[in-house]
Amino acid sequence: MIRMRSLRKVHGQNVSCRSLDATSDSSNHSDSPNISQAVRRGSLVEESIEEQPMHIPRKIPTRGLQRQTSFQKTSFRRSKKSDPTKILLIVTIFSFFGMSILTFLLLHPEYQRDIRQLTKQWSFNSVDSIASEYMQYPKQCTIDQLKEIRRQLDPKACAETGISRPFQNYCSLTKATSCPDTTNYLEEYYHELQEEYIKQKMKPSDIEPFVGISVGCNKGYDALDIFRMGTFDRNLKKADWKSQMDTRIAKSRCGQDKSPSFEVDERIKIPRRGQMHCIEPILTTIARLKSVSARTGYERKGFNVVYAALDDRNWTAKMPFNKKMGSEENGLDEDCNSQTANQKDCEKETTEVDVMTLQQYVTKNVPDSYPIHVLHIDVEGYDANVILGAGKDILERVEFLQFEYNWKAAWKLHHLADVIDLLDENEFTCYWAGKDQRLWRITGCFMLYYDIKVWSNIVCVNRRRNQALQQKMERVFEETLRFRKSYRTRVLYQKLKLDVVATDALSTDVEMMTSKYLKI
User: Fold this and answer.
1) What residues make up the domain containing 97?
2) For bias kind Polar residues, which ranges apply (predicted)?
3) 31-54: pLDDT as tens digits
4) pLDDT (tens digit per residue) in 409-424
């Protein structure tokens, strides 16, 4: 390349090869060198480059080459920017498609609900779930985990007595979950929300109202404590409620009237807004609840006492009027139109009560934009029916669910496995609710002896709506598996011979143990 460049310069007769010849003498320079000299000197340059390549850069005008290279690059860049119309057209096209997609999302009804959730008033309960993806389908329990659950919730007494005499309450599930203690997950979660409420210096108008529903409200103690917990209102006092209740009222089975109330921080001056729906079908009880709610002023705070009953269909129940106020055994199975009713009671005064589905009740009484933070169901055997009557639209609004499982009324027609599967399809993870602040996961950990219908309590969390609470409950489950206590009951008064069904329920064969339905 250097030789050819030297020849071109010689033909042009405007550049001397002296600057390129490292061995030439100054006396031999000529203004008009001949071609042979140029060729000879060009070859000498080539030989000089091959023999002494490091000396060549000092003789080559590199600065000019750099300017030339820089000029070429600059020219190239200018050529790229030379047509701003194309750039403007591309930006316009991308902007058009972006706005089209955004408009579609804004107008799509399925996304509008999520957008309202994001843009509505600030809510504690959606902070964690919106910030990250909700927990995926719970992992299946391993065989070791199932065996540990069986060790703690020993199935032997359940198989011996639960099938034929569940009312004796010898099953470990009854012993472990008779009066659940949710202090270390549900109350802990709301204590954290309360702390955020204080730190953020929020006003009641800044956050969405708390919504709680108690189906089978009975004496109202559970509903009142849930309402206090959700609204951070320390003026909702269980002692004031109890002082207004009739002394002749039936005692609470789990001592709710004596248990400590949810602790509210004194720094909270203005509580959160809220509404609590206390639904009860026994007229004598509902009359007392309405009276107490009015006298205490809790009705004005949003504690709504409702005379109604919930089921999976609409109908009108004919209930005996003379039932003891606050009795916890009264349910729709006492409807005088059914075969299970006590006909002696039905011969006396009766009263009619409207029975509706949870979906109808919520649609009528709870604004569409409100989630249902706590749904508590205790309806003496119709719990599964209430859940079935909720429908998908209502279930997806529920964050925390608690219900009772037993052998009574409509539970005779349902399998627990089917209810758990239904809830799982609607993003709920369910647990046996322990009375010692323990949880044993049912979702993904079902075992055959759970199909023995005994009195017990179950809690579920919507893992899509409330990831923070889900994680707390899963942590409690993992801690429970390290718990050494076992809820065993020995039937001492007689020895029972296990039948085939009971033997199947006790099987540790993996396929049998993890099946769903007992052949009763």
Assistant:
1) 84-119
2) 13-37
3) 444 434 433 444 433 443 344 444
4) 999 999 999 999 999 9
